[in-house]
Each structure stands twice: as structure tokens, then as C-alpha cells.
Amino acid sequence: MYNNFFGFKEKPFKLVPNPEYFFLSKCHEEALAHLNYAISQGDGFVQITGEVGTGKTTLCRTFLESLNSRTKAAYIFNPKLGPKQLLMSINDEFGIKSDSETTKELIDTLNTFLMRNRAKGNKVILLIDEAQNLSQNVLEQLRLLSNLETNKDKLLQIILVGQPELAEMLDSYELRQIGQRITLSYHLTPLSFRETKEYIQYRINIAAQRKGIKFDQLAYYHIFKYSKGIPRLINIVCDRALLTGFVLNQHKITGNILKASIRELSGPGRTRNYGFADGRKGLVLISLLAVALLVAIYHQPLMNRIHKLLKSGGPQKTEIIQSLESEIQTANTSPKIQSFSKPLEASVSKNPLTQITTVELADYLKNMNVQASRYFAFKFAMDLWNVNIDDISYLVSIDDDQSFFQLSANPRGLTIHRVESDMNLLMSLNLPAILEFYPPGSPSPGYLTLSKIEGNHVELGGAGEDSLVVTDLNEIEFYWTGVAYIPWKNFLSILGTIPTHSYKDSVITLKLLLQDIGFTNFEINADYDDATQTAIENIQAKYGVPVDGFVGPLTKIILYREKKSFEMPQVIRQ
């Protein structure tokens, strides 16, 4: 209703777990880092808990989107199943085709799949959302699945995500055998006052097509007081506030608008917390809003009078402002993560008069600053995407490199895909890529960003603000480890890996995209049929990526590249 009025491409506060709107608060960042660390270490059982509405499902889907092609995942979001039905759902999610009917046959088929992937060097994970709904019988079945292992490694990693009752269940005496196998756990907490403000602005920035919409400080205060920092409640109250602002023809969302919106949401029993001096004024407000919905477009003078009446009501603001100042002071005095060292901060500054110098790859690696290279390589890659980065020094302490890149990219509308391949694949994708190198004698890798390929000539950025590293294709193959982190943008929000864990609207979007590219031998519906799979396999073969018919990050990248109308940087120069 209000999208055109505020200049939104879509409603910014929809109650759907869209990874595109995933806000990286401190606790969500740590939860993602825990998950990525657990996967890298091969931990058997992982537990993530959080109160209702804290963003657990969005976290799950963002995590699944970040997985590379060497990780196979099954996502179970409706765990109210029996042990046998759970096994069947797991096999379906992994794309295991089987006519097995007994539990033993289902487990044997799954074990064969797990052994085959272990031989290929792939990791396999099972992620169960709303896991507090699992029965004891199903939890016992999961414990048995965790016994699928080799002498050295677990064949299946299991991630349980649920409400706090999940932790209580696993701490019980009856389920101690599973509880003792939890090697890593994390609890999501609500957003702070400062994070609540940042969360609101972040979602607005993604949805907005033009600037204009603003929330004042009192509005933020009432949102935080009502929601207690719970993202779902923030979405609900902000959506209602935008509707009220639209009705009142106001582009600035004020404290009065928030009080009116909260009163509608809270019901008659809670009006005094956010209301006027008595219930009669609340009734008057509701009546005025009802009338306003009918005359908003047709009678502007009446709207102006309603707005004046709303502004005239309400209690004195002194107490509210004092509470707000207290909240802000608390937020400003919260502990901060240590920033970059001063030498690194100084080296980030630009001098527009400085000439760009070049250095040979072999010479540069001898004196490479490994610690700083990760930041500079990422910043250079973002520059190629025309994306400005704010201070990300608080992420420097993250040891896992993939987690660092992913957590740095997500708030900027990009994601990171890790590959282990050769230059042929990178040239086929034709995108900037952050390459991993091991300087002589260094136990840790350093990074440079592939920025230009012209014939046999290669340029790498991220050596500092004023330097480029030059090399050729032969030399880069000699020094490069084969690991690359590719920033990319999911322009059409095609979620999941199709068809193993995907969504109906994503399959429809995929088919529309294929139709634009030139494939038309299928109906536009939510079925991932044989004709659609054949089209995907043809595209995969054309670009030299694994031809498996699955639509994961690599295939999405080449589909967007094939469309040619999306703004994507290129590294190959003719």
C-alpha cells in the first residue's frame, strides 16, 4: 500500500526470512562464525538457540546460502516427523533416490551417499530448524545417524536450531547421550538499542529506491521499548508505523506515529504504556485513523487537520526523553572489539596525487604483509563492485578467512563463494576473485584480488592503496594455492540450492531467467522438471562448471553473467 509513497521497491519489513535482508548484529555475526567454524572443524553436533523472533530461520538460510560447492546440505524446517519419515525427508533433501521402505535400508542408502561424498572430499551437513519440536524417538534416531563415521571423521554433521526449550531438552537426563555430543552451542540474543536503529535503517536502505524516509529518535525509542530488540517485533511495529505515516501523509516517522501504531498493535489492555492520558483519546485516535484511510487520497485539507489533532495529544515528553538519553548512553558505553592497529589504519588513507606502482608477484610475496592482506584484498574487490565499505575492523579478530569474507560482504548486499579450482574456471566466470597465496616461510595465507586478465598478462590488487602486483598466467598458477573467494550478488534472490533445498518462488524466478536467456521448452511453474534441468546442464557445460543440474552459487553466477543486463565487474580485457 505504501511502497510508492515512500519510494520502496518492496516492503522492507516483511515477515519472511529473506537472506537479502539479513542484518549482521554482533550476536548474529558470532552465530555465523560459530557455524562456519564448526563446519571447518568437522564437529558432530552443533546447537543454536534463540527466543521466538530473534532471526533463527533467516540465520539458517543465510548460512546455507554461504556454503560452497564442496558442502552438501539438507535443510529440515518441519521436524514434526517420526523417525522413518525424518530419514525419508533427509534422503529427499540430499537428492537420494531410493525405493527403500525400511529404516535400515534408508540408513544404508544414506551411509552410501555419505561415504561417496567423503571420498570426493565433500562435507555433508544436516540442519534442522525448529528443533525444539523433535520427539525423543527422532532425537534418538539423530544420535544413531551421528554414529556414521570413519576412523577419523564424522560423515554427517548435525546442526540443531530452535527455541531455548531445545537446550533444556538436551540437558535432561533422558537425552544425556545426545547432550554430551554437543560440541558447540550458541544462544542468539535480542538486538541492543543501537543495533535496533541500525537494523531498521539497513532494511530501509535495501528496499529504498530513493532517499526520504526517516525515523526520529523518539520513534526509535518506542520501537525498542515495544520490541525489546526482537527483530520480528521490530518488523511488525515498523510496518504498522509506515502504514500510519502513509495515512497521515508523513515521510518522517515520529514518536507520536509510533505511539499510535503501538496502541493499535497492543490492544486495549496495554494502552497506558504508550497511549494518551485516557482510553477515550485512544478511541478517538483509532476512529481518526479509520476515517483517514478513506480520505487519505481524496481530501488533503482534512488530512492536515487530523495530523494537527494527533500532534496536540499525548503526555509531556520529558520522562520519555530522559529514558531515551539513558538508553543511548548505555548503548554508547558498551564494550567494543579491538580495532586495527594504527599502522594499518594509516596505510588505508588515500593520496589522490600518488602514482600507482607495479611490482612482480614473486618479489611482492617475499615481503607480503599477511595480516593486512585479507582486509586490503577484500576492500579492492568491493571497489571493483562499486561498493563502499565502512569500518570492518571489528571483524579482524575472526580467524577463519571464509567467515571474515562472508561476514564482511553480507551487509553490503553481496555474498562470497569459495572455490578450489584453476584459472580456467575464474576466467569463465569473469569476475574479480580474492586469491589465496602462501608467501615463502609463512604459516598463514595472504590474499590478492584478481582484477585484470589481458592475454597472458595478469594484474592483482590489494597490495595497498598505491600498488598493483603484475604477473602472468603461468606464474600465478605456480604461486596460487587454487583457493579463491568470489564476491557475487544474488540479483533475483534465487534462494537455496535447486532442487535439493529451494523454494517455489525461486524455481519460478529461475525459469523466468532461463526464458530471458533463450530457453523456452518448459512451463513457468514451481516444478523443477527435466526440461529445466537440461537447460541448466547446457549452461553449466558452456561455462565449464560441473554439469550436475543443481543450481547453487556457481550456476547462479553464470546465469546472471549470461543474462548480460546485470551490472557485474569483469576482469578479462580483450
Chain-wise SSE layout:
Blueprint: H1 3-6, H2 26-41, E1 45-50, H3 56-66, E2 71-76, H4 83-93, H5 103-119, E3 123-128, H6 136-145, E4 157-162, H7 164-170, H8 176-179, E5 182-188, H9 193-207, E6 214-215, H10 217-227, H11 231-247, E7 252-253, H12 255-266, H13 271-274, H14 279-295, H15 300-312, H16 318-332, H17 342-348, E8 357-360, H18 361-366, H19 370-384, H20 401-409, E9 415-420, H21 423-429, E10 433-437, E11 446-454, E12 457-461, E13 467-472, H22 473-479, E14 480-488, H23 504-517, H24 530-543, H25 553-563
Can you put this structure into words, describing what you see?
With 574 residues, the chain is of the alpha/beta class. It has four domains: 3-17 and 192-332, no CATH class; 26-188, Rossmann fold (3-Layer(aba) Sandwich); 342-488, Cathepsin B, Chain A; 504-563, Muramoyl-pentapeptide Carboxypeptidase, domain 1. 48% of the residues lie in helices and 14% in strands. It is built from 25 helices and 14 strands. It has helices at residues 3-6, 26-41, 56-66, 83-93, 103-119, 136-145, 164-170, 176-179, 193-207, 217-227, 231-247, 255-266, 271-274, 279-295, 300-312, 318-332, 342-348, 361-366, 370-384, 401-409, 423-429, 473-479, 504-517, 530-543, 553-563; strands spanning 45-50, 71-76, 123-128, 157-162, 182-188, 214-215, 252-253, 357-360, 415-420, 433-437, 446-454, 457-461, 467-472, 480-488. It has a seven-stranded mixed β-sheet, sandwiched between helices. The protein is globular and about 70 Å long. It starts with a helix and ends in an 11-residue tail after the last helix.
